[in-house]
Structures are given as C-alpha cells and as structure tokens.
C-alpha cells in the first residue's frame, strides 16, 4: 500500500519536472537532436496520416501512439496556459514528466516486493529507506534529464519497470502485455521482457522447492532436484508453462517482427547494425560507479584485487590477457560518437580514449573493480538470479556498436532496485549527489551553446 508521503513525493516530482520542462521550452523552443525526427513523425500521426514513416527513426511508433492517447488530456490541462497546440513540441514535452512521477510509485512498489523482509508498517525507518531508494532511482541523472525532452527513454523505462513489477506481483498476463507495449517503444526491451519471464520462472521454481522441502532451490547444488521434480510431475510443469505462456507469445511475435522487418531496427540501419561490442559491459560498470559512488565506492576492494593477483597468479594473468585481447579486438568508435559534439561521450572519447593508444587499456583496473563492486551489492540474490541478471545486461549492451549512455539507463535501474538496502546516510548522500549532477547538467545544457554552420539554432550539450 502507498503512504500519504508517497503521493506527496509523486506530486513534488511531477510539478518540479513540469517546471523544468517549462524552462526548457523557453530556452530551447526548437526541436533538439532526436526531437526533430520524433516531433515530425508525431505531426503526421496527429494529422491522421499513419502510413508515413521517417526512414531516420529506428524505434517503433509506440511513443507517438501513447502521445495521441494523452493529447486530449494534455490539451485540457495546458490549454488554459495558452500553450500552442496539443501536438506541438511545447506541449508533448510535458508528457514525460507524468511517466517520471509514475515511475516513483512503481519503484516504491518494487522495493516493497523485492525487499519484503525489510518492509513492515511497524518499521518506519525501513519504509523511509525504500522510499528514498525509489526517489533516487527516479532522479537518476541519465533518465531524469530526458524527462524534459520528447525522447523515448522515460516511457521505455516506465513500461519496463511496470512489466517487471507485474511479474513480481504474479500478474503474468498483464506483465507480458505491458512488456509488449514496451517493445513498441524500443525493440531492445524484448530482452527485459525475457528477464521478467525468467524472474517469474525463478519465483515458480522457488515455490516448488519450498513445497518439497528443498533448501535454497535456486542455488546450483539444489537446482537439479527442482528440475527433477519439474521433469517427473506433469501437473507442476504445466503450471509453470502456463506462467510463461504469455511471455512466449510476446517472444514469438517479436521473432515474426524481425523476420518481416528483415532486422531489428526500423530505419537508419546502416548506422545501427548489431555488433559484438564486448567492452560495452565495462563502460556500463564505469557508468554505474561514476553515477553512484555512494553505494559502490565502499564496495571497491583494491586490496582484494591485489591479493587475488598475488595468490592466483595464473588465473589473474589469464584474466588480464583475455581482457586486453577483448579491448583490442572489440572496441569500436562509431562515426556518430566521433562526429557529434553535442554529447558528453564525444568529449570523453576525444580527451581520454583518443589521447593515446594505451588509454583504453589503462582503465582495466577500474573495469575489474567496478564490476566486482556491482556484483558484491547483489550478493543476497540466488546464483540463478545473478546469472540471469548478468546475461540480460550483456544481451542489452554488447550488441550496440555506438557508445550511448542512454543504453545503460534500464540496466542501472534494475541493478539499483535489486542492490542491498542501504543505510539512510548513504541514501541521502546518493540523493544529494544525483541532484548536484542533475543541476550541473541542466546548467550546462542551458548556458553552454555553440553554432553549427548548417544548423539554424544554437547547439547544446547533453549526455
């Protein structure tokens, strides 16, 4: 159940987000980067033309369909504020603020479901810790910034988190349906639908194990016993299959889409080809570390790494050699990364990775430490769940040739809500740190401008 304070925070997030959108509309009234394509496509939909498709748009039309559904609501709300038209960029930018505020409520529910051992109405401190964690993932800088632009990222995160929440609450058919909607916003969300299905399966396996007095059924030593029960008892197997059926149908639908579309991306396929960009997992871990030093910095075990290198020299040497080869063979610099100076990744790549040929190898200790730190925050989860999480994270990051920080939003969210519950002091530091980054990024966006010869409007810097 939600507390009064949850609704208060919902309102605060909603109105503060809308205030910032209002400022963005004043400072940046013209479409910015991908907004040019999104608002152009939306205008065709608003005019009733559903056959036109911009070949530069890579994602499905879910964002535009959802926007059309909300247009009458936006029109009634913002009509009194003399906002131009319900399909104007100025209006639809407000849409993401609703999804960001709703994300907080979903996150609170997820925290209660995932950390139910700590959730008790009698323990107000633990309740407050969950609320603060939910607030922190809601204002995570990478996703929170796109609340103020007409992008797909916030809606995508909202739908994926809702899909997962419904799965944890055992509403599997509803979960699969919302998961299908999430795939209509971004194709890569099919991986998170599979993750939700996998977690639903693990929940079923755990219940079967408990009914049959199997201790820790999701650990490797006990898993074979559960599999034996599933194999021998048709009734139980049928119940498990029924749980997964709706997810399987979504998966089949996605496979049909890929075959009909001759690929995953809808448009601009030349620039969005699948690759084996193994180092993306390393970049993802560094992003986790940089944006959440409050949780991960205490988990960095430099002494442990040195001790491991000393005691397990052969294994450590193999890891170093394997990592060096992977970085050498599977590091890609996408043309967009090298050409677009409106993204922070452009400057990171230019000033670090291109500074010297050895720069990319010097980050190996950071990769090791951040990866182990993230893994240590998940130590309370079962062996099977951790395998599922890391496999999902790899599947959603490795195929991307382009280094784009937005690709790490959902992986970060899923890690953070599953991480061990932190103390109030750590959570307050995390909140303050995130707010400082959010403020710095907005100041940079508002005040750091430059011109492009072939662009009419001033250019700005975003993630």
From TrEMBL:
Keywords, comma-separated and alphabetical: Endoplasmic reticulum, Glycosyltransferase, Membrane, Transferase, Transmembrane, Transmembrane helix
Localization in the cell: Endoplasmic reticulum membrane
Principal location: endoplasmic reticulum
Entry superkingdom: Eukaryota
GO cellular component: endoplasmic reticulum membrane
Root EC class: transferase
GO MF term list: dolichyl pyrophosphate Glc2Man9GlcNAc2 alpha-1,2-glucosyltransferase activity
Transmembrane residue ranges: 7-28, 62-81, 93-112, 239-258, 278-297, 318-337, 357-375, 387-415, 427-447
E.C. code: 2.4.1.256
Topology relative to the membrane: Multi-pass membrane protein
Pfam family, one: DIE2_ALG10
GO biological process: dolichol-linked oligosaccharide biosynthetic process
Metabolic or biological pathway, per its Swiss-Prot or TrEMBL entry: Protein modification; protein glycosylation
Catalytic activity, reaction form: an alpha-D-Glc-(1->3)-alpha-D-Glc-(1->3)-alpha-D-Man-(1->2)-alpha-D-Man-(1->2)-alpha-D-Man-(1->3)-[alpha-D-Man-(1->2)-alpha-D-Man-(1->3)-[alpha-D-Man-(1->2)-alpha-D-Man-(1->6)]-alpha-D-Man-(1->6)]-beta-D-Man-(1->4)-beta-D-GlcNAc-(1->4)-alpha-D-GlcNAc-diphospho-di-trans,poly-cis-dolichol + a di-trans,poly-cis-dolichyl beta-D-glucosyl phosphate = a alpha-D-Glc-(1->2)-alpha-D-Glc-(1->3)-alpha-D-Glc-(1->3)-alpha-D-Man-(1->2)-alpha-D-Man-(1->2)-alpha-D-Man-(1->3)-[alpha-D-Man-(1->2)-alpha-D-Man-(1->3)-[alpha-D-Man-(1->2)-alpha-D-Man-(1->6)]-alpha-D-Man-(1->6)]-beta-D-Man-(1->4)-beta-D-GlcNAc-(1->4)-alpha-D-GlcNAc-diphospho-di-trans,poly-cis-dolichol + a di-trans,poly-cis-dolichyl phosphate + H(+)
Record-linked InterPro entries: Alg10 (IPR016900)
Function: Dol-P-Glc:Glc(2)Man(9)GlcNAc(2)-PP-Dol alpha-1,2-glucosyltransferase that operates in the biosynthetic pathway of dolichol-linked oligosaccharides, the glycan precursors employed in protein asparagine (N)-glycosylation. The assembly of dolichol-linked oligosaccharides begins on the cytosolic side of the endoplasmic reticulum membrane and finishes in its lumen. The sequential addition of sugars to dolichol pyrophosphate produces dolichol-linked oligosaccharides containing fourteen sugars, including two GlcNAcs, nine mannoses and three glucoses.
Family: Belongs to the ALG10 glucosyltransferase family.
Protein name from the UniProt record: Dol-P-Glc:Glc(2)Man(9)GlcNAc(2)-PP-Dol alpha-1,2-glucosyltransferase
Lineage of source species: Eukaryota, Metazoa, Ecdysozoa, Nematoda, Enoplea
């Amino acid at each position: 159940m939600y507390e009064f304070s949850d609704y208060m925070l919902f309102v605060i997030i909603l109105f503060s987000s809308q205030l910032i959108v209002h400022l963005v509309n004043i400072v940046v009234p013209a479409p910015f980067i991908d907004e040019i394509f999104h608002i152009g496509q939306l205008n065709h939909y608003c005019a009733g033309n559903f056959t036109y498709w911009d070949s530069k748009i890579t994602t499905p039309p879910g964002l535009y369909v959802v926007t059309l559904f909300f247009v009458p609501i936006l029109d009634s709300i913002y009509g009194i504020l003399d906002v131009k038209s319900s399909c104007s960029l100025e209006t639809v930018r407000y849409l993401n603020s609703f999804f960001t505020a709703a994300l907080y409520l979903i996150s609170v529910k997820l925290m209660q479901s995932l950390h139910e051992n700590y959730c008790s109405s009698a323990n107000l401190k633990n309740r407050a810790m969950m609320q603060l964690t939910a607030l922190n993932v809601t204002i995570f800088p990478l996703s929170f910034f796109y609340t103020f632009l007409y992008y797909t990222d916030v809606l995508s995160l909202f739908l994926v988190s809702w899909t997962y929440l419904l799965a944890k609450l055992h509403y599997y058919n509803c979960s699969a349906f919302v998961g299908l909607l999430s795939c209509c916003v971004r194709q890569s969300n099919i991986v998170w639908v599979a993750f939700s299905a996998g977690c639903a399966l693990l929940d079923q396996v755990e219940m079967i194990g408990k009914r049959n007095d199997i201790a820790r059924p999701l650990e490797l030593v006990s898993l074979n016993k559960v599999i034996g029960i599933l194999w021998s008892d048709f009734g139980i197997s049928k119940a498990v299959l029924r749980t997964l059926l709706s997810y399987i149908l979504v998966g089949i639908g996605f496979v049909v889409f890929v075959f009909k579309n001759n690929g995953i991306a809808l448009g601009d396929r030349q620039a969005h080809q699948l690759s084996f960009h193994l180092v993306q997992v390393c970049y993802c871990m560094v992003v986790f570390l940089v944006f959440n030093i409050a949780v991960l910095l205490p988990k960095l075990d430099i002494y442990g790494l040195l001790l491991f290198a000393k005691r397990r020299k052969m294994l450590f040497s193999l890891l170093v050699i394997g990592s060096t080869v992977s970085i050498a063979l599977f590091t890609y610099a996408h043309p967009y990364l090298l050409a677009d100076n409106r993204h922070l990744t452009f400057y990171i790549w230019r000033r670090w990775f291109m500074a010297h040929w050895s720069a990319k190898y010097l980050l190996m200790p950071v990769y090791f430490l951040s990866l182990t730190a993230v893994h240590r925050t998940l130590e309370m989860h079962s062996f099977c769940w951790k395998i599922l999480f890391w496999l999902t994270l790899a599947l959603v990051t490795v195929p991307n040739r382009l280094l784009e920080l937005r690709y790490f939003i959902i992986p970060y969210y899923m890690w953070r809500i599953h991480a061990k519950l932190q103390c109030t002091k750590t959570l307050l530091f995390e909140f303050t740190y995130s707010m400082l980054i959010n403020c710095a990024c907005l100041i940079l966006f508002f005040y750091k401008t430059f011109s492009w010869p072939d662009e009419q409007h001033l250019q700005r810097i975003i993630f």
